[in-house]
Write a structure and sequence with these properties.
CATH topology of the largest domain: Beta-Lactamase
Order of helices and strands: HHHHHHHEEHHHHHHEEEHH
Number of helices: 15
Low-confidence stretches: 285-294
CATH class of the largest domain: Alpha Beta
Number of strands: 5
Distance between the termini: 40 Å
């Protein structure tokens, strides 16, 4: 997966998904071989020549200006996250030396924040969706069936994308699993555009595409989504159903802190309180010891 092919594939996919009536393009009742826009129609909407746009899709024109990219984004009806993704892909398509992404770690400020969020489920997620750390409630809510100390060992770190698609326990957690799955894929799309040289990310994407037909189908859709805030109904094996608001506290480069909150006075808050009582520090400590010695 290289920058040229990613840019071309993204443009082709989004063009094919935009119907003429959505873009205000008259069809005069003609029969069309494909439901989406033709290259010439998209080029006209963006104010560029058809030949130039064709070269851009084919990876032969790698010097598109930000203004041209914004015009294409408007023609494709892209939202802000998708527009930024288009710019990322255009940058990654240009021939240049690129450094390997630095190894990820939990910084001292992030560790202190995780500790301060003791009464709120919280996990620290790396760019590839690796779980770098979690607090007691974060582990109990999202992955109570896994080794609590797994994030401490790089080779054993859980990966949330892998869990969502390949782990039956995590899949059963979400009442609307497709919505959660699409959010995971959309976020990985953004990351792939930002880190085109990340070999470990490519390995993860290849594994998921091979082992999950659902992932492969969603990945081919080229939808992108910044997972900043989303509400999910969860079906937890210990406390039953609850509705949580998953929010990302940190943006930009580096690990992200994701928390799950519930509405005050709601049955979901009561369920989360019950989970907190069920995993007292002493019980959690014994659980960690049991996992680490098994």
């Amino acid at each position: 997966m290289n920058g040229k092919s990613q840019l071309g594939d993204f443009l082709q996919a989004r063009r094919s998904q935009l119907r003429p009536d959505e873009a205000g393009v008259p069809t005069y009742g003609e029969r069309r071989r494909v439901p989406g826009l033709r290259r010439e129609e998209l080029a006209l909407l963006a104010g560029v020549s058809a030949s130039y746009y064709a070269r851009l899709e084919q990876g032969h024109s790698l010097n598109a200006s930000p203004e041209v990219l914004d015009a294409i984004a408007r023609a494709l009806r892209l939202d802000e996250s998708e527009r930024r993704h288009l710019h990322d892909l255009a940058r990654s398509a240009k021939p240049r030396s690129q450094r390997r992404p630095a190894p990820e770690r939990v910084t001292k400020p992030t560790a202190q924040l995780l500790d301060a969020l003791a009464d709120i489920p919280a996990i620290v997620i790396g760019r590839r969706s690796d779980v770098l750390a979690w607090n007691r409630l974060g582990h109990a809510l999202f992955a109570g069936h896994l080794n609590p100390s797994a994030p401490d060992v790089p080779a054993e770190r859980p990966n949330m994308a892998r869990l969502v698609f390949l782990d039956v326990h995590t899949r059963d957690l979400y009442s609307d699993w497709p919505s959660k799955a699409k959010a995971v894929v959309g976020n990985l799309r953004l990351v792939a555009g930002q880190y085109p040289q990340d070999g470990a990310l490519h390995t993860l994407l290849g594994e998921l595409s091979t082992k999950s037909e659902e992932f492969a189908s969603m990945w081919a859709d080229h939808r992108v989504k910044a997972c900043a805030v989303a509400e999910y109904e969860m079906r937890h094996p210990l406390i039953g159903s609850l509705t949580v608001m998953q929010q990302t506290l940190s943006q930009g480069p580096g690990p992200r802190v994701v928390i799950a909150t519930t509405a005050a006075g709601s049955p979901s808050r009561a369920a989360l309180d019950l989970l907190s009582q069920a995993i007292t520090p002493a019980v959690y400590a014994r659980s960690v010891s049991r996992f680490s010695t098994s």
